[in-house]
Specification:
Chain A: Residues 72-148 form the YdbS-like PH domain. Chain A: Keywords: Membrane, Transmembrane, Transmembrane helix. Chain A: The chain crosses the membrane at residues 21-41, 47-66. The complex is a heterodimer. By secondary structure, chain A is an alpha+beta fold. Chain A folds into 2 domains: 7-72; 78-151, PH-domain like, CATH 2.30.29. Chain A has 4 helices and 7 strands. Chain A is elongated, with a radius of gyration of 21 Å. By secondary structure, chain B is of the alpha+beta class. Chain B has 4 domains: 5-145, Roll (PH-domain like); 168-240; 244-338 and 390-470, no CATH class; 342-387, no CATH class. In chain B, the strands form 5 sheets. Chain B has a 7-stranded antiparallel β-sheet with strand order 14-13-12-18-17-16-15. In chain B, strands 1-2-3-4 form a 4-stranded antiparallel β-sheet. In chain B, strand 16 (391-394) and strand 17 (399-405) form a beta hairpin. The two termini of chain B are 53 Å apart. The chains are: A alpha+beta, B alpha+beta. Chains A and B meet through strand 4 of A and strand 19, strand 20, strand 21 and helix 15 of B.
């Protein structure tokens, strides 16, 4: 297949993903403790708790360590003159091509977590789909947004 | 021309019926849960019913009386509202389509319903004149439509026209597979009355009567299935009767319906893709149905912005018809098939869900249950058919077509400039075998997207498609 897109997203994305992974696994742990309580109250077999424990530990490991690392490793993008090239995915790798002529608008957005780490998401919309490049450095994101919006001003001479 | 006019008085009656239809549920609830009738209470219940109906009738009459329209300074001006007067002015430049139809009630009186749509879209038409005479509808049309549109309308006969024959419609209806829909709808309907109608009792009496004669019972079941099949054919024919497509200038006008005539426009420039569908039954007889995917026009009130263009055509005739009605779209003679290493994955994918489902069942009904596992064979065959039918072909610099099968064999014709994004995806297993899945996204309606995919094409072919798409 064609060579990978050149640019990676910010390394700080890893931290942000790990934090949100930690929040999510905290919820899993809470559910686990509820489950333990229910098991004790109704006198269900104890091996259920063991299985639950293993599941939650694996889940936590995946959400905080494995998935963010893999996702970051896969995430690549490149903005060419005529198209935007995006590659992403965990176990299934997706490669997306968005022609500049099809781009309708570009936005940057920032949640509270991203803001804390001076990151922003660039999202590119076509008439049918929206594509996000998550967690770029704020300045880089703004530069990218402006660049795409200039490049996207080409007219569709195919008509 | 510009004096205010009222609709035909029938509009009052239609309004009345509409309100009654909305009131049926609350009234029924009121009657069922309004307490068991004792003396005065029964009287009270009927009084409520009579008053509600009379009130609705009055409301219908008043709203008809207060609803006037006129055409003034190139605008359609409508005034309506019983207590609060409302005015709506629609300038003729803003009008996109004028849609004339006739429901059963309108038909009985030789009247029509006129709907006016502007670019604003939304689910309801901007103005609806529920009941006017045909002559009046023509008058409004010619006063409001831009001049070039009128000339098109008048020259209609000179333009291309396709009309589905009754024979085609009946074949289309009987091979559509909509019998399943009717069966389940019927089941749900009779299921509702489970408590009212003593089915059990019927069945018992019936069994006594026939002395459990299996032959008679199965004959009756067979008859019932045939009956449902006929009903489904009738419904389809009623829906698609008088199916015509007229090409006038840059629009396709599709009209259909035996009892209630429906008509809508699809601007050719807004067509996003053409789909050709062949379910196994139709494939057997060499027929296909052709659909249009569009990004606007009245078709969007149809399901999912895709609309039947030709309900049933011989496969050999498809290209001829397409070239007449939708230029630039044609079915290629051949497709680039998948590499043979994809076959195993295709068979696995269709067999695996069947096995997962069947294994526990056959386990519980030992030993005969294991016979169920024979069902794997047809699923494997389906997998093989899916493999055989899948393919992509780049016809030229501007067009590409896909072919795939879920159950129905589907050919999708696409233009490069209508493909909003191209995506390839590759799982770990696919990567090992140098296979990939291609996804193509198009616009559907104003705000939605639709996507088509072909699974397990050769990596090298994927590269070629990406190259084709990048090239401007």
């Amino acid at each position: 297949m064609r060579e990978e897109p050149k640019h990676r997203i910010s390394e700080r994305a890893l931290t942000v993903w790990r934090i949100s992974g930690a929040i999510l696994s905290a919820i899993s742990w809470m559910l686990f403790f509820v489950f333990v309580a229910v098991t004790l109250i109704f006198d269900w077999p104890y091996w259920l708790i063991m299985i639950g424990f293993i599941v939650v530990v694996v889940d936590t490991y995946a959400k905080i360590f494995l998935f963010p690392k893999l996702r970051w490793k896969r995430w690549r993008y490149e903005v060419h003159e005529h198209e935007i090239d995006i590659q992403r995915g965990l176990f299934i790798i997706r490669r997306t091509i968005i022609p500049m002529v099809r781009v309708q608008h570009v936005d940057t957005e920032q949640g509270p977590l991203l803001r804390k780490y001076r990151l922003a998401t660039v999202s590119v919309s076509t008439a049918a789909t929206t594509h996000e490049i998550p967690a770029l450095d704020v300045q880089e994101a703004e530069k990218l947004r402006d660049r795409i919006s200039i490049l996207a001003r080409v007219v569709d001479e195919d008509e | 021309m510009n004096e205010p006019r009222r609709l035909h008085p029938l509009a009052a009656f239609i309004q009345f019926l509409k309100t009654v239809r909305e009131l049926i549920l609350p009234l029924a609830l009121f009657f069922i849960f309004g307490g068991e009738g004792e003396g005065k209470f029964v009287w009270f219940k009927y009084a409520v019913l009579v008053i509600t109906l009379l009130g609705t009738l009055m409301g219908g009459l008043l709203s008809w009386y207060r609803y006037t329209y006129r055409i003034e300074q190139g605008e359609l001006r409508i005034e309506y509202g019983i207590f609060v007067r409302k005015r709506r002015y629609i300038p003729r430049e803003r009008i996109q389509t004028i849609h004339v139809s006739a429901g059963i009630i309108q038909r009985l009186f030789g009247l029509v319903k006129l709907q006016i749509e502007t670019a604003r879209g939304g689910n309801e038409a901007e103005a609806v004149l529920t009941a006017i005479t045909k002559a009046e509808a023509d008058r409004i049309k010619s006063a409001l439509l831009a001049d070039d549109l009128i000339s098109y309308a008048q020259m209609e006969d000179a333009f291309l026209r396709y009309e589905a024959t009754m024979k085609e419609l009946v074949i289309a209806a009987s091979t559509s597979g909509s019998i399943g829909v009717v069966l389940s709808a019927g089941g749900a309907f009779f299921g509702q009355f489970d408590e009212l109608i003593p089915y059990e009792l019927f069945l018992q009496k019936f069994q006594q009567f026939t002395h459990l004669n299996m032959i008679i019972i199965s004959l009756i079941v067979l008859f019932a299935i045939f009956l449902v099949w006929f009903i489904s054919i009738f419904i389809m024919v009623a829906k698609y009767g008088h199916f015509t497509v007229v090409k006038n200038g840059d629009d396709l006008t599709i009209s259909r319906g035996l009892l209630e005539k429906r008509q809508f426009n699809i601007p050719i420039a807004r067509i996003q893709a053409i789909r050709i569908a062949q379910n196994p039954l139709r494939q057997l007889f060499g027929y296909a149905a052709v659909y249009v995917e569009s990004a606007g026009g009245l078709a969007e009130k149809e399901s999912n912005y895709s609309t039947v263009l030709f309900p049933l055509v011989k496969v050999s005739k498809v290209n001829e018809l397409l070239s007449m009605f939708v230029p630039h779209y044609s079915v290629p003679a051949s497709f680039e098939r998948l590499p043979s290493r994809a076959l195993r994955r295709y068979i696995w994918r269709s067999v695996l869900p069947a096995v997962v489902l069947l294994l526990p069942i056959s386990y519980f009904f030992q030993p005969w249950g294991y016979l169920l596992l024979l069902l794997v064979v047809p699923f494997a065959f389906l997998g093989y058919m899916r493999f055989k039918d899948a393919g992509v072909y780049m016809i030229d610099e501007h067009s590409l077509s896909l072919r795939y099968r879920v159950f129905t064999k589907m050919i999708v014709l696409l233009r490069k400039r209508r493909i909003q994004t191209l995506e390839s995806s590759q799982s770990i297993f696919q990567r090992k075998q140098r296979l990939a899945t291609v996804h193509l996204f198009i616009q559907s309606g104003l705000l939605h997207s639709k996507h088509f995919k072909v699974v397990d094409i050769d990596e090298a072919h994927m590269d070629a498609i990406q190259k084709w798409y990048r090239k401007r």
